[in-house]
Design brief:
5 helices, single chain, mainly alpha
């Protein structure tokens, strides 16, 4: 896994809990579960379930359970939608920039590769033909 992205995800989790004024713990109280699920679902746009699980201190199956119930929770679990929107804004602000930066680096790498390939092909075309 990408250690840098893991660190950024952990930073998002810390920022989220600070923003909502809740100290994270492993309890199964409604406020803790709601907060964990909110930030986990927001992080899922930027990583795989294993990465998200590590960032929120749960296992991958818990993240799968959260994902399965997320849409219903947005509609029916009082306060969840508000927490998710806060988590979404935080992750988009931090990880969205990171994602755009990674995409730009990938494009620049492809351009460099294609320019080198172009030069190689031009050199082949310009070589004299041996008869």
């Amino acid at each position: 896994m990408d250690r840098h992205r893991d660190e950024i995800m952990t930073h998002c989790v810390e920022m989220f809990y600070t923003t909502i004024g809740l100290v994270p713990n492993k309890r199964r109280t409604q406020d803790q579960v709601k907060a964990r699920a909110s930030i986990a679902m927001a992080l899922l746009d930027y990583g795989i379930q294993g990465q998200v699980a590590q960032a929120v201190g749960k296992d991958r199956s818990t993240i799968a359970h959260m994902k399965r119930n997320h849409k219903d929770w947005l509609l029916y679990w009082e306060g969840y939608k508000n927490m998710y929107e806060i988590a979404f804004r935080i992750t988009r602000k931090i990880l969205g920039k990171q994602s755009a930066s990674e995409q730009l680096n990938n494009i620049n790498d492809r351009i460099k590769f294609l320019q080198e390939e172009k030069k190689s092909l031009e050199n082949q075309l310009n070589e004299p033909i041996a008869i």
